[in-house]
Amino acid sequence: MLSIVYFAWVREAIGRDEEQVERPDPGMTVADIVAMLAARGGGYAEALGDTARLRAAVDQRFVPMDSLIGEAKEVALFPPVTGG
Questions:
Q1: Rounded-to-5 percentages of helix, strand, coil across the chain
Q2: Which of 19, 23, 46, 81 is the most exposed place for a label (fewest CB within 10 A)?
Q3: CA distance linking residue 70 with residue 84, whole number of Å
């Protein structure tokens, strides 16, 4: 299983803060996982439909959307973070 963790407005749109999904093929990218989830429709499509609005971390390391999942245990999805 792979843990998917959601933060901020992504979590609010989907209505949950995390879930478990079947382990994807290690050759899949973060963008592939996001597309798979967005295809569920509803809040998933709303939150995940545009990857340009998202950032990701794999096993708590920031990664670009084209990063391979490999044997990761967790993928986190969140909006870009700004400082102030």
A1: 30, 25, 40
A2: 81
A3: 35
List pLDDT tens digits, range 32-69. 999 999 999 999 999 999 999 999 999 999 999 999 99
Q: 3-state class of 25 per DSSP? A: coil
What 33-38 contacts at long range (C-beta under 8 Å, 24+ apart), as own/partner pairs, is: 33/2, 33/4, 33/69, 33/75, 34/65, 34/77, 37/4
Q: How many CB atoms lie within 10 A of CB 77?
A: 24
Q: How far is the C-alpha of 23 from the C-alpha of 37, rounded, in Å?
A: 13
Strands (E), the chain: 2-6, 18-21, 55-58, 61-63, 74-78
